């Protein structure tokens, strides 16, 4: 079983701060990486994807990928209370047939 | 209308009953998936299908079966429900291996 590991949290940050969410994966051949946001009782929503080493920015979100270290992260700048949710890291391995999800990190942004 | 529709949204049923969860999509995606989500265990893959004639088991397929009736429809059945199948079930679709998923709204299934 290919592992995707996330700290379960909760990660608590004050409003306006940068939230940093981390994910490691075991399959060195993994090709694509996704971040989903899931509000309680709702379905996961895709917020970022990244395929190449380095940073990818989209609005307040930045995804960072380091394949050598098998590490992917999500930064949320100017965090808002509405960002409070569980963030799921998902990895597509070399086989390419499905995404393998981490258990998620709970983020709490306090006013 | 939602791109990926799951029915029912909630279901309570008794141990031993057969139950079917349905998923339909208007995304035009070939790839469809069924996952279950349990507290502390995350999302786990049950079955997936890349086209109408293609059905594949995921990591936790025991006790489940699926049917891909059309490109747009993918149903999950529990042949004889047991309490540890109580979970939140998600259907998802994808355009291909380089793309993420679009999830349905989920079915909250309780087996008593």
How is this fold's topology laid out?
The complex is a heterodimer of chains A (111) and B (112).
Chain A: E1 4-5, E2 11-14, E3 19-25, E4 32-38, E5 45-50, E6 54-58, E7 61-66, E8 71-76, E9 85-92, E10 99-101, E11 105-110
Parallel strand pairs in A: 2-11
Antiparallel strand pairs in A: 1-3, 3-8, 4-5, 4-9, 6-7, 7-8, 9-10, 9-11
Chain B: E1 4-7, E2 10-13, E3 19-25, E4 31-38, E5 42-51, E6 54-57, E7 64-70, E8 73-78, E9 87-94, E10 102-103, E11 107-111
What does this structure look like?
- The complex is a heterodimer of chains A (111) and B (112).
- Chain A is mostly beta strands.
- Chain A contains no helices and eleven strands.
- Chain B is mainly β and 112 residues long.
- In chain B, 0% of the residues lie in helices and 58% in strands.
- Chain B has no helices and eleven strands.
- Chain B is globular and about 40 Å long.
- Chain B starts with a strand and ends with a strand.
- Classes of the chains: A mainly beta (111), B mainly beta (112).
- At the A-B interface, strand 4, strand 5, strand 9 and strand 10 of A face strand 5 and strand 10 of B.
Largest sheet of chain A: 6 strands, mixed
Major β-sheet profile of chain B: 7 strands, mixed
> If interface size is counted as residues with C-beta under 8 Å from the partner's C-beta, which chains form the largest one?
A-B, 24 and 24 residues
State the helicity of chain B in percent bands: under 10%
Order of helices and strands of chain B: EEEEEEEEEEE
């Amino acid at each position: 079983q290919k592992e995707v590991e996330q700290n379960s949290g909760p990660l608590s940050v004050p409003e306006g701060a940068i939230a940093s969410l981390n994910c490691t994966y075991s399959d060195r051949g993994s090709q694509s990486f996704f971040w989903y946001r899931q509000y309680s009782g709702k379905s996961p929503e895709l917020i970022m994807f990244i395929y190449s080493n380095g940073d990818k920015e989209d609005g307040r979100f930045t995804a960072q990928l380091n394949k050598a270290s098998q590490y992917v992260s999500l930064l949320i700048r100017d965090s808002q209370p509405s960002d409070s949710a569980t963030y799921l890291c998902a990895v597509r391995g070399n086989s390419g047939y499905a995404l393998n999800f981490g258990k998620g990190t709970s983020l709490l942004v306090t006013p | 209308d939602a791109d990926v529709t799951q029915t029912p949204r909630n279901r309570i049923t008794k141990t031993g009953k057969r139950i079917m969860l349905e998923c339909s999509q208007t995304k035009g995606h070939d790839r469809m998936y069924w996952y279950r989500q349990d507290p502390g265990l995350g999302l786990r893959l049950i079955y997936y299908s890349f086209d109408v004639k293609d059905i594949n088991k995921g990591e936790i397929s025991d006790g489940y079966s699926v049917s891909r009736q059309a490109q747009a429809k993918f149903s999950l059945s529990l042949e004889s429900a047991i309490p540890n199948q109580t979970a939140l079930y998600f259907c998802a679709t994808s355009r291909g291996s380089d793309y993420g998923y679009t999830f349905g709204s989920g079915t909250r299934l309780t087996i008593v």
